[in-house]
Amino acid sequence: MDHGHMGGMASPPSPPSSTMNGSNGMMHHKMMMHMTFFWGTNAEVLFSKWPGSSTGMYYVCLLFVFALAVIVEWLSHCRLIKAGSSDVVCGLAQTFLHAIRVGLAYMVMLAVMSFNVGVFLVAVAGHTIGFLLFGSRVFKKPDPQDEKGSDLPPMSC
Questions:
Q1: How many CB atoms lie within 10 A of CB 99?
Q2: Cis bond upstream, residue 51 (ω within 30)
Q3: 79 exposed, middle or buried (CB, 10 Å; 0-12, 13-18, 19+)?
Q4: Cα separation of 12 and 134, whole Å?
Q5: What is the CA 110 to chain-centroid distance, rounded?
Q6: Torsion sign across C-alpha atoms 69, 70, 72, 76
Q7: Could you tell me the membrane topology recorded for this protein (predicted)?
Q8: What backbone phi and psi angles, to 5 degrees, belong to 9?
Q9: What is the pTM of this model?
C-alpha cells in the first residue's frame, strides 16, 4: 500500500520557508484575525498595527470610533444649506455631504468588523448619543415651516 498519498489525493504543499520559525518548523503569526467577538485591548482596528497592544492607544481608538459615529449622526440630521441657495449649488453640497457621511459610516462599519466588543459598544453608543443630540426632539424644537428636517435623506439599508 502506498502511504505517500491518501485516497489518491496529493498532500498539500508545504508553506514557504520564510514563514517557518527557526529549526522547529512551527508557524509564526504576528496577529490573529478574530472572526468572533472578543474582549481585550490587543486589537487591530482600521489600520495595520493600530492601536496595537498599548492600553492607552486602545482607549484613543475607542474615542475615535465614538466620534466617527457621532459625526455620522450629525451629518444625517444637520441643516448646513441655506434655504435661498440655487438648485445646482444645493445639489452639489448635498452630494458632497452624502459622500462624507457614507465614507465615515463605512469607517465605523470597518472598525466594528474588528470584532472587538469595546469597539462595537462605542460605535453603538456614538450613534445613540449622536441621534439623541441631533435627531431626537430632546434638544431641538420642531420648526413648523421645516418639513424636511435635514439636508440629507435618512440613511437606508
A1: 10
A2: yes
A3: middle
A4: 56
A5: 3
A6: positive
A7: Multi-pass membrane protein
A8: -95, 140
A9: 0.69
Residues 6+ apart with CB under 8 A from 90: 81
Q: What's phi and psi for 44, nearest 5 deg?
A: -125, 115
Q: For every one of its 157 residues, what pLDDT tens digit does the chain have, with 9 covering 90 and above?
A: 555 444 555 555 555 544 444 445 555 445 566 788 888 888 888 888 778 788 899 999 999 999 999 999 999 998 888 777 788 988 898 899 999 999 999 999 999 999 999 999 999 999 999 999 998 888 877 665 555 556 555 554 3
CB atoms under 10 Å from CB of 139, counted, come to 9
Residue among 117, 154, 134, 149 nearest 70 (CA): 134
Cell numbers representing residue 27 in the block: 508557524
What is the C-alpha separation between 51 and 151, in angstroms, rounded? Answer: 34
Packed helices 55-77 and 87-112: angle between N→C axes, nearest 10 degrees: 150
